[in-house]
Amino acid sequence: MHTHTTPSAALDRRALSDFRALAGRIDGNGPRYTSYPTADRFHGGLDESAYHAALADCRAAAPAPLSLYLHIPFCENICYYCGCNKVITRDHGRSAKYVSYLGREMALTAAHLGGRRQVLQSHWGGGTPTFLNPAEMRRVMASLHEHFDLPADGEHSIEIDPRRVDFERMALLAELGFNRVSLGVQDFDPEVQQAIHRIQPFEETRAVVDASRELGFRSVSLDLIYGLPHQTTARFNATVERVLTLRPDRLSVYSYAHLPHVFKPQRRIDENALPSAGEKLDILVSTIERLTAAGYVYIGMDHFALPDDDLAVAQREGRLQRNFQGYSTHAGYDQLGFGISAIGAVAGRYVQSARTLDDYYAALDAGRLPVMRGFTMASDDRLRREIIGALMCNGVLDIAQIEARHGIDFASTFAAELADLDRLGADGLVRREPGRIEVTMLGRLLVRRVAMVFDRYLREDAARPPAAQPAANDGAQPVRFVPRYSRVV
Ligand code: SF4
Predict the structure, then answer these.
(1) What is the CATH number of the domain that holds 296?
(2) In angstroms, what is the span from residue 228 Cα to ligand 1's centroid?
């Protein structure tokens, strides 16, 4: 048995300089693989009856614990970089209606599960979950408790817009059982904030972080975005220094993808003010250097954590996983999604809900679950999902284990993939040893590229003549190859 070489060690300078050198040649962009197959492969063929069947299978697997995602789409103001599914409004009449429909959706779903199930991981995302007023939050939580058990020692997290909460609101979140918070920051520079239409003074964010600590939240996570207008390496470094004074347990540093043809709000961003590709790379490298020097572990895919944080510990022990919320220590559970555009993963099926409020309400008014599309995984999908997960999360693939679990011969099943992997190996991204594939330090910085080798659907796209390739995106579907930054409230 090989010793597990932990990928959690600090990134070395050599890997970072190799990364710089390769950046022009190897594109580090690609799917984030919060699911495999990726959400853009979901289709309308998976309908409500298929979801019923999935829920029946999930019911048969009781008492296995569940994970749950709840989408609150409302925001008071638009951030110009936004690529999320949200509804801009100040009208709380709209959220009151939404809250009551969320209750209906939970009741319908729970009826199919045939009893109260334990939810060990829950996450409220958006939009802006803290758009809901205290009474609305209590109602949503009451609906959850009516249909599910949410033990206090589970992971219960919520995305917070620091501009919209005060100490009292944070105290309410603690009272409601949330024990992890994730705060959208993006950048503290006033000029950048103005250009993205998100004015958020440092003091405001600090007050929320202080409140979280005082109230005993187990983990505080901050989101930054690089590649925004007016950012330079020096300016972003200043933001990073201020962030370090807050010492969040986790940090996400997302890349901004400027796609104004897909995401309308981005048309209000001045393209001439965007940093060049070279500057953007510089910002990323110096951020990684600074954060790792400050003691953060590079988890991978834009994520950093303090060494004693659950994510870093799970990665050291080789049991980190991915789900729709990104890296997780609980990803093995079936996940239920509630609210518009929410994605669930239930008994080998992915299910996504209607994207608009109208469709969502209409389905529930008719007593139907609001399924819009989804995907039923075949055994090949499960196999590849496991491989991609192992490479992305723990940086190592144990071939004998995969062969035993899936009853395959790895070398003959993945001959084409191994040839591609060897090309990445020549560039130093992976190391192949008898019985295992290991992602190097450099490879971890380009891990999407490594994972893409095992994506059957990308391979099929590439093999097709250009005319037969998928049509340009009209904004209704997630974009392929584009790093998403969905947790940026
Ligand atoms: S970035 Fe977040 S807070 Fe801003 S508009 Fe989009 S969903 Fe709302």
Answers:
(1) 3.80.30.20
(2) 15
Which is the closest atom of ligand 1 to the Cα of 77? 5
Residue whose CA is closest, atom 4 of ligand 1? 79
**Atom 3 of ligand 1 has which residue's CA nearest to it?**
489
| The predicted structure's pLDDT at residue 326 | 75
Residue 133 lies in a domain: yes
Residue 235 labeled ligand binder:
no
Low-confidence ranges of the chain (pLDDT < 70): 1-11, 330-331, 466-489
CB 275 within 8 A of CB 232: yes
State whether 27 and 50 are in the same domain: no
- Tokens coding 374: 């989804």
User: Which spans in 61-149 are helix H?
Assistant: 92-113, 134-147
> Does any domain span residue 374?
no
Task: Quote the pLDDT of residue 468.
Answer: 58
Q: Is 343 annotated as a binding residue?
A: yes
pLDDT tens figures, 223-257 = 999 999 999 999 999 999 999 999 999 999 999 99
Residue nearest to atom 2 of ligand 1 (CA): 489
State the pLDDT at residue 165: 96
Domain enclosing residue 132, as ranges: 39-338
CA of 483 to the centre of ligand 1 (A): 16
Burial class of 49 by CB neighbour count within 10 A (0 to 12, 13 to 18, 19+): exposed
Asked if residues 325 and 221 have their Cβ atoms less than 8 Å apart, the reply is no
For the Cβ of 127 lying below 6 angstroms from any atom of ligand 1, the answer is yes
Write down the pLDDT at residue 30.
84
